[in-house]
Amino acid sequence: MTGQFSPAFxxxxxxxxxxxxxxxxxxxxxxxxxxxxxxxxxxxxxxxxGLSEPWRILRIDSPARRAACLQNYRDCxxxxxxxxxxxxxxxxxxxxxxxxxxxxxxxxxxSDDSTPKGHGLGAATMPETRAYSVVGAIIHLWLALRAxxxxxxxxxILDRDRLMRDLDVPANWRFIGYLCIGWPEEDDTVPExxxxxxxxxxxxxxxxxx
Amino acid sequence: MTGQFSPAFxxxxxxxxxxxxxxxxxxxxxxxxxxxxxxxxxxxxxxxxGLSEPWRILRIDSPARRAACLQNYRDCxxxxxxxxxxxxxxxxxxxxxxxxxxxxxxxxxxSDDSTPKGHGLGAATMPETRAYSVVGAIIHLWLALRAxxxxxxxxxILDRDRLMRDLDVPANWRFIGYLCIGWPEEDDTVPExxxxxxxxxxxxxxxxxx
Lengths: 210, 210
Description:
2 copies of one chain form a homodimer. Chain A is an alpha+beta fold. The first copy, chain A, has a single domain, classed as NADH Oxidase, CATH 3.40.109. Helix content of chain A is 40%, strand content 15%. The first copy, chain A, has a 4-stranded antiparallel sheet, with helices on both faces.
């Protein structure tokens, strides 16, 4: 490969981005390890500030650990439901916001903000760029998995301190996101939150010139 | 398109990720507006927490504003050089860490953490997921531009308060990154920081099982 890409590839890349969804409805059949490994190769190709590669991955296989994270989500989601306004609470209650009970693969993703790798380059005035690097890697993984037909759902309705304790995470790691991975029950180009009547996508980008 | 992707597409997607670089060496010839617009369509397809789409883009065209941002970078980079250890300072001084003086397109990217869009869904325990959504959109843009042969360089060596003042940014926006976009002087699969002897990529991912 020469690093030149065709119009046909660009169209298919745009289609991939249109078909990428945050998936919360998974089949329970297993994910072949080879497909997950390919996704993680894409993850590792993401840009990172100063080449610091601050990403740290915990694969959660233990049923007890999974149950603790699921309960963490359920408690936080019950709190979130309790804070909804009257006109939105019924809609919120109907939303399925995590596939943690069904997805065969669970990854908890962290940033080691104290890593010496990269020698601090690019992160002096903006240390949060380490966390941002990890987010970029998750997007790479997300696109690569979707290209295999796999779904990914990013769960953020979690108490991070509780999760750090439940998963026995080194104190210098920052929790970025809890990822559910598996075969989606359905494919769509419309976000589930839009189909459920929660929110719509903007027809235009907010772009100003200075 | 059905949302099904072929092995050939997946290979080309992996190649795109291998060829995507943080570019700091740009030619000065202009970027066709149609290509930039296609990149921004990819940007807008990124996932966002609660469908909040918190991204805000400032396109910096004014020479005075560009000069202010470039001086911001130069001052911060001089400070960063001054903090290097003796054994690394000479290497740091040789690095080119921004294409702000040459790149034809400059975008400053922000997150509106106070947006009502999405009704707060998913961001109660982790409000930083709004910033993370904006990072994901930048990664979409980065990949889409690279598929057109265009380069993107993300500059983070900036004083954010000074940048907010210089660009007259609403106080409720959070600065995420300053993007230089243009035609790269060269293409490579090896990061420039690796070619310059600053840091190398890890041969393995940090992955533990719990």
